[in-house]
Design brief:
Strand order of the largest sheet: 4-5-8-9-7-6
Strand content: over 45%
Radius of gyration: 25 Å
Oligomer: single chain
Distance between the termini: 65 Å
Structural class: alpha+beta
Number of strands: 19
Order of helices and strands: HEEEEEEEEEEEHEEEEEHHEEE
Helix content: 10-25%
C-alpha cells in the first residue's frame, strides 16, 4: 500500500514537473517571438538576458537591460530589469514589477522615471484575455525631463470591468508636486504640492479591451464622470457629468464644473506659457462675469455643454470641442 502511494505521488510530481516545463517552454517561445516580431518591424527590441523561474507554482520572468524603441513614433523604453509573475496553473492573473529607475524616450526628449514600489496587477478572462480588473500603484513616482520634475506620492489607479465593454475607473494621488520652474513663475504664492487628486468614472467602449487591443483599439462611446477633484492649497476644482460619444469622437452632453479661487488657476496657466495670453485674457473676463452672477467673485459653478462637436460654457460659445479618439 505504501509503495503504491509512493508511486502515485511520484507520478503526480513528474506530471506537475512536466506541466511546469511545458509552461516554461511555451512562455519562452512566446516572449522570444514577440521580440522577434518587433525587430522584424524595424524596432530596437533587445535584452541582455531572460530567465524564467518559480518552480513549482509560478513562472516568474525577469528581463535584464531592456531596450525597446518604435522608430515610427519615436517612443522608447530603457530599463535595467523588468519582472512579470504568472501562476503556472492560471495564465489569467499577472503581476508586473518595475525597477526604481528607468528611462522613457519621446520625440521631445528623454524622461527619467524614478519610483518606489512601482507595481501592477492584471486579471483577464477567456481565450482572448479580455481585461477584467487591473491595479497600478506606486508609493513614489518622479518624472524628470531636463531640470523639470513632476513628483507623485501614493499613486493608486484601478480598472474594473462592468457589463459588456463598460469599465469603472478610479484614481487617487495624495501628493503631487509640479516642476519648480513653474512654481517660481507664479511668484511662490502657491503651495509646492497638491494635497488631493481623485477620479471616479465609467467609460463604455465599442468593444472589450483584450491583449490584442493594440491592433484593434477599442474606442469610447460614453463617459459617466462621477467625480474628478483636485485640491491645491487655496484652489479646488471639481467636475462631474455624462457624455455620449459618436464614432467620430464627437461628444454630446454636459459637464458640471465647480472651481474655488479660479483666478489663481489662470495665473498658473499663464506661468506655464502653454496658453496664449490673448486666450487667457478673454477667458478671465468671461469667467469673471459668470462668477459675479453666481454670487462670489472667487468661485465658479457653471455647466460646460458639448453638442455636435461644439462647446458652450453657460450661454457663451467656446468653439470646437476636442475629439475623444484613442490613437
Amino acid at each position: 500500500m505504501m509503495k503504491r502511494l509512493a508511486f502515485v505521488i511520484l507520478l503526480a510530481g513528474l506530471a506537475w514537473s512536466g506541466h511546469w516545463l511545458w509552461g516554461w517552454y511555451s512562455l519562452s517561445t512566446a516572449y522570444e517571438g514577440w521580440f522577434a516580431e518587433r525587430r522584424a518591424k524595424g524596432w530596437q527590441a533587445d535584452y541582455a538576458d531572460m530567465a524564467i523561474r518559480g518552480f513549482p507554482n509560478r513562472h516568474d520572468t525577469t528581463w535584464t537591460e531592456l531596450r525597446l524603441t518604435d522608430p515610427e513614433s519615436g517612443i522608447g523604453w530603457r530599463a535595467p530589469f523588468f519582472q512579470l509573475f504568472l501562476l503556472s496553473y492560471n495564465r489569467h492573473h499577472a503581476i508586473a514589477a518595475w525597477p526604481d529607475r528607468q528611462l522613457i524616450l519621446t520625440p521631445e526628449g528623454e524622461i527619467e522615471v524614478t519610483s518606489d514600489s512601482l507595481q501592477a496587477s492584471v486579471i483577464t478572462s477567456g481565450a482572448e484575455h479580455a481585461l477584467e480588473r487591473a491595479n497600478f500603484a506606486a508609493d513614489v513616482l518622479n518624472l524628470t525631463r531636463g531640470e523639470s520634475t513632476t513628483a507623485l506620492a501614493r499613486l493608486r489607479a484601478g480598472v474594473q470591468r462592468g457589463e459588456g465593454a463598460a469599465y469603472d475607473l478610479a484614481l487617487s494621488v495624495e501628493g503631487l508636486a509640479l516642476p519648480a520652474a513653474l512654481l517660481r513663475a507664479t511668484g511662490g504664492a502657491l503651495p509646492e504640492t497638491f494635497h488631493e487628486a481623485r477620479l471616479q468614472a465609467q467609460v463604455t467602449f465599442d468593444a472589450p479591451w483584450t491583449l490584442g487591443a493594440a491592433k484593434t483599439r477599442p474606442q469610447p462611446r460614453s463617459l459617466d464622470l462621477t467625480r474628478a477633484e483636485l485640491a491645491w492649497g487655496p484652489m479646488a476644482l471639481r467636475l462631474a457629468g455624462d457624455l455620449a460619444i459618436d464614432a467620430a469622437g464627437r461628444a454630446t452632453g454636459e459637464v458640471h464644473l465647480q472651481a474655488r479661487n479660479w483666478q489663481e488657476m489662470l495665473a498658473v496657466a499663464r506661468a506655464s506659457g502653454r496658453v496664449s495670453a490673448l486666450a487667457l485674457d478673454g477667458l478671465e473676463a468671461t469667467l469673471g462675469l459668470m462668477a459675479q452672477f453666481s454670487g462670489s467673485p472667487t468661485s465658479l459653478d457653471v455647466t460646460l455643454t458639448l453638442d455636435d462637436g461644439q462647446m458652450r460654457l453657460g450661454p457663451l460659445p467656446l468653439g470646437a470641442a476636442p475629439r475623444l479618439v484613442l490613437p
